[in-house]
């Protein structure tokens, strides 16, 4: 398969990214995406390539639902008014707010949560710290943010390690969701074995594909939510396919992230309609891709990265 590289600016800095890059390829089953984050080495990037190969070579598993509820996503930047605007514009009944961003304070996070609650009194609010807190700071922040929110739906990855998650879970009343402790772990079931989380967040590319995620969901023994890796709509389609195929889906999914990119590679980006996404198999639009095709030096770097990852297969 021939992989092409894209480079798309983010609307706002998100997860430390200001520009999203990755690769796209077409196989017998359709288009696929390979877009490991910059900090991932060749070994950590291998599941991302396995997910791309699955998407290109195999049809999606049979869906059990024809639409997937999604949450709105609010980056940890800007003031409360900006956070409320983004939340309202998402059209979603569940809002996930990134917190504990470098350079931001707990007071900033409190302001944003309060503004979202005032703007959307009936919405469910969850927060995601991406492992930034230690146990003491996590407990303090969660209790304050839970109070301001009038009750948080859950807190995603408050601390970096499974052991820390387990300690925090014993000290707060808010459910704990594990993300990095699953997708970046040698053993994704450690969160279950240490009673470290109430909810498992699954991401298709980092975990090796839709079917790999379905196997984890079957064995992990806790409710599952699906989240994206900030991909183009081609990558997001795999996340929608996973969410549509899960036997149970008690939580809105964090896959309505196409709006975080200034452009896309398909004619009709996968953006929520009335808070939901629908299973589909988008194809690359040549005109759209031409606008975001990576410069030669970026493509060369990604082609070299791909070659190194392939060597680990």
UniProtKB/TrEMBL annotation:
Purpose of the protein: Converts 2-succinyl-6-hydroxy-2,4-cyclohexadiene-1-carboxylate (SHCHC) to 2-succinylbenzoate (OSB).
Membrane-spanning segments: none
Ranges for domain Mandelate racemase/muconate lactonizing enzyme C-terminal: 77-175
Gene: menC
Cofactor(s) the protein requires to work: a divalent metal cation
Pfam families, per database record: Enolase_like_N (PF18374), MR_MLE_C (PF13378)
Binding-site positions, Mg(2+): 128, 156, 179
Keywords: Lyase, Magnesium, Menaquinone biosynthesis, Metal-binding
Pathway involvement of the protein, from the record: Quinol/quinone metabolism; 1,4-dihydroxy-2-naphthoate biosynthesis; 1,4-dihydroxy-2-naphthoate from chorismate: step 4/7; Quinol/quinone metabolism; menaquinone biosynthesis
GO molecular function: magnesium ion binding; O-succinylbenzoate synthase activity
Signal peptide boundaries: none
Organism expressing this protein natively: Aeromicrobium flavum
Active-site annotation: 98 (proton donor), 203 (proton acceptor)
Record-level GO BP terms: menaquinone biosynthetic process
Superkingdom, taxonomy of origin: Bacteria
UniProt-listed Enzyme Commission number(s): 4.2.1.113
Family assignment from sequence similarity: Belongs to the mandelate racemase/muconate lactonizing enzyme family. MenC type 1 subfamily.
Presence of keyword Disulfide bond: no
Protein name per the record: o-succinylbenzoate synthase
Reactions listed under catalytic activity: (1R,6R)-6-hydroxy-2-succinyl-cyclohexa-2,4-diene-1-carboxylate = 2-succinylbenzoate + H2O
């Amino acid at each position: 398969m021939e992989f092409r590289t894209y480079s798309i600016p983010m609307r706002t800095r998100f997860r430390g990214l200001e520009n999203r890059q990755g690769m796209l390829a077409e196989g017998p089953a359709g288009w696929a995406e390979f877009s490991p984050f910059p900090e991932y080495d060749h070994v950590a990037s291998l599941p991302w390539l396995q997910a791309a190969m699955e998407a290109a070579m195999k049809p999606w598993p049979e869906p059990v639902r024809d639409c997937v509820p999604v949450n709105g996503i609010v980056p940890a930047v800007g003031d409360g008014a900006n956070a409320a605007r983004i939340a309202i514009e998402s059209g979603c009944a569940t809002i996930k707010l990134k917190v504990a961003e470098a350079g931001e304070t707990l007071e900033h996070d409190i302001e944003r949560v309060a503004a979202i609650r005032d703007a959307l009194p009936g919405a469910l609010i969850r927060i995601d710290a991406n492992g930034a807190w230690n146990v003491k700071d996590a407990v303090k922040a969660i209790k304050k943010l839970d109070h301001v929110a009038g009750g948080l739906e859950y807190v995603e990855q408050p601390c970096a390690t499974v052991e820390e998650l387990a300690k925090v879970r014993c000290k707060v009343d808010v459910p704990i969701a594990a993300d990095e402790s699953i997708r970046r772990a040698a053993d994704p079931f450690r969160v279950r074995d240490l009673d470290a989380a109430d909810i498992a967040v699954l991401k298709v590319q980092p975990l090796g594909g839709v079917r790999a995620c379905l196997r984890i969901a079957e064995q992990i023994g806790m409710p599952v939510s699906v989240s994206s890796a900030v991909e183009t709509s081609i990558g997001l389609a795999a996340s929608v396919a996973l969410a549509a195929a899960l036997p149970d889906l008690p939580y809105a999914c964090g896959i309505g992230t196409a709006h975080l990119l200034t452009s896309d590679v398909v004619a009709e980006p996968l953006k929520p309609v009335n808070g939901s996404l629908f299973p589909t198999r988008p194809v690359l639009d040549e005109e759209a891709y031409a606008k975001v095709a990576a410069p030669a030096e970026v493509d060369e770097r990604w082609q070299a990265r791909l070659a190194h990852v392939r060597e680990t297969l």
